[in-house]
Amino acid sequence: MTQLSSEKYNIAWFKLAEFVIRKEKERALYMYRLLVHSLPDEAFAAQLEGDLLHSFNDPKAFDCYVRAAIMYQKKGKHIEAIALYENLMIISGSQEYSLKLLSIVLNTNPVDHEYIKQVIVKVLERGTPEKNKEFIESLQALDSQAYTFAQDYTKK
Asked: Dihedrals φ, ψ of 3, to 5°?
């Protein structure tokens, strides 16, 4: 891993921001490639790449976010993984990422049941009846309380 001097490191971050603001994608990605060698956390580097690509509306950002979320989850950095899965859930509308998000939340202490309910409501409000049925069935294996809440919510 190459280490930049503190001054060069700060300038590189400034230049990266400048390139993003000016919508200079290639220059921003080049600066990112230089900076990534000085970043100690691969998950953060993947998330940063996703943020850069997302700022340029590049669909490859999604894959970077998925990679970062998986790395954070493996490292036990649950808050970071939750934030990324929440972002993925919103970007994609996919119930798959909602289930991954709920799985992490259910395995953290203390479990935030109100947050779980909010996620379930968001998913059910966006989904089709067929997708919602699949989602609720998946919840059954994940958590009985979440499953019961989802069933009751769809009956309203």
From this structure: -105, 130
Contact 61, 54 (CB under 8 A): yes
The string of pLDDT tens digits covering residues 3-17 is 556 777 788 889 999
Q: Report the number of secondary-structure helices (H) and strands (E) in the chain.
A: 9, 0
> What global pTM score does this model have?
0.83
Rounded to whole angstroms, the Cα distance separating 53 from 12 reads 18
In three-state secondary structure terms, 64 is: helix
Q: Which residue has the tokens 């691969």?
A: 42
Helices 129-142, 144-155: axis angle to 10 degrees equals 150
Give the whole-angstrom CA distance, residue 134 versus residue 124. 11
Residue 148 one-letter amino acid: T
For 38-47, b/e burial (b = at least 16 CB within 10 A) is eeeeebbbbb
2: pLDDT strictly greater than 50: no
How many angstroms from the chain centroid is the CA of residue 138?
Answer: 20
Domain range annotation of the chain: 93-156
For residue range 56-87, what is the model confidence (pLDDT) as tens digits? 999 999 999 999 999 999 999 999 999 999 99
Q: Enter the DSSP assignment of 126.
A: H
